[in-house]
Amino acid sequence: MHDGKSETTAPAIPGWRLIVSDTGRYWAIRNRAFPRVALRAGVEPAVDADTFEEVQAAVAVQEEKARTAVEGGAL
């Protein structure tokens, strides 16, 4: 595996560490922990996908779920 940030032309997702496996699978791991309320609501701090676009979409889903949990005060 290699860290996507180590390549100058690698795509990036702000606030997330992007890793691309040797087989081309994309992984994104959030740099800072989600609030506990978000984690209790089922938000995932790490996602994976076959393409950059898919992992980017998965990150967006998790960020939106976290935002909803925090704004709604879900327990």
Topology:
Elements: E1 2-3, E2 16-20, E3 26-30, H1 36-40, E4 46-49, H2 52-72
Antiparallel strand pairs: 1-2, 2-3, 3-4
Overview of this protein structure:
The protein is an alpha+beta fold. It is built from 2 helices and 4 strands; from the N terminus they run E-E-E-H-E-H. The chain has a 4-stranded antiparallel beta sheet, with helices on one face. The termini are far apart. The mean pLDDT is 89.
Taken as a percent bin, the fraction of beta residues is 15-25%
* Molecular shape: elongated
Number of strands: 4
CA gyration radius, whole angstroms: 13 Å
Helix count equals 2
Kindly report the spatial arrangement of strands forming the biggest sheet.
1-2-3-4
Poorly predicted ranges: none
- H/E series, N to C? EEEHEH
Estimated helix fraction:
25-40%
The mean pLDDT is 89
| Class by SSE composition | alpha+beta
